[in-house]
Amino acid sequence: MAQLKITLRRSAAHRIPSQRQIVKELGLGRISSSVIKPDDAATRGAILKIAHLVSVEVVEG
Question: For residue 1, what pLDDT is reported?
C-alpha cells in the first residue's frame, strides 16, 4: 500500500483555526517537519485543505 510523505513548507501561523488544527492533527510542528501517513481518503482530504502549506510525495512501502 502506498504511503504519503507530507512536509510542512509554509508556516501555519496566522492561518484560520481549522487549517492550524489540521496541521497539528497531521503531526506537523515546524517548517520542514515531515510525517508518513497512509494514502487514504481521510489523509487526502486533510491535505486538500492545507495544500498551499505542504508538499506531498508518494512513498512506496
Answer: 80
